Amino acid sequence: GLSLEQLVCCISRWTSSPGFSHIRQRDRRKRVLSNMKLLVLLSICACLALKACAEMNHCVSPPFLSGHAYMHTEVGAIATSGTFDYDALGQQIRIRSSGTSVSGAFSLDLLMQFQKKVAYEIDSSKGTCKKVALDVPFNPIQIPPDAFPSSQIVLGTGSVAGMGLLANTWYGYIYELQAFYTMVFSDNACVPLSGTYRSPGSGAILMSFFNILFGVRDPMDFIPPHFCQTEELKRWEDLPKTNFFKLISSANK
């Protein structure tokens, strides 16, 4: 039989033979070809991703919207869902919802009129109203001009026509608030779908929108009830702690 030294010597001679060198060169060519295919595939994927991002345009949502919304905050553990009506031309929003927080359950009927710089928290069952100075600018539902495109996605499935919704994801940073945000809007008609917001003061805030309709359900919803007309204007800090405004204020400290 062969000794160990003889076996090693035979293996060394075989691997250094012209035949084995040809095998090694063939394997090297296969690896190079495989790497080239991988690079081409990655290049195609990158081009498709860049093309998709290039086709994502900053957009503004339709001026009149209504639908349902859900919101959850990390600080204060506020979870609320309900309906909203949005009027960008009149710069006013009506929200009706209910939810829970660390303080317990609550319900909300809120009318915000940014042009008039006033907001109303309405309790129709008791015929009471809280009127608050709303000294903040109106921000239309839109992709902020300084937001960056992230990716295009399909909600549902794109395998069957009519069963998927093409959507665009965006991200950005608000320097004065040290806040990061992400937004998802439909590619067609710029309908808001979801969003996240995170800052050191407020923690994470998650929002989702669904059952969106173009238009408002009842224009009269933007007119305060008669029992709100005689209500004195209050400052934000003067509201009781059980009030919704105070609830949001404490959650954002």
What does this structure look like?
It is a single chain. The chain is of the alpha+beta class and 253 residues long. 23% of the residues lie in helices and 40% in strands. A twelve-stranded mixed β-sheet has the order 7-8-9-10-11-1-2-3-4-5-6-12. The N and C termini lie far apart (85 Å). Mean pLDDT is 78; it is low at 1-8, 35-52 and 239-253.
Q: Beta-strand percentage?
A: 35-45%
The residue ranges in which pLDDT falls below 50 over 5 or more consecutive positions are: 1-8, 35-52, 239-253
Mean pLDDT score: 78
Using the CA coordinates, give the radius of gyration: 30 Å
Between the first and last Cα atoms, what is the distance in angstroms? 85 Å
Biggest sheet statistics: 12 strands, mixed
Q: Quick one: overall form? A: globular
Percentage of residues assigned to helices: 10-25%
Topology as a string of helices (H) and strands (E): HHEEEEEEEEEEEEH
Q: Note the total helix count.
A: 3
- Structural class from helices and strands? alpha+beta
Entry summary:
The protein is built from three helices and twelve strands. It is an alpha+beta fold.
Characteristic terms for this protein:
12 strands; 12-stranded mixed sheet; 40% strand; disordered C terminus; 253 residues; 3 helices; alpha+beta
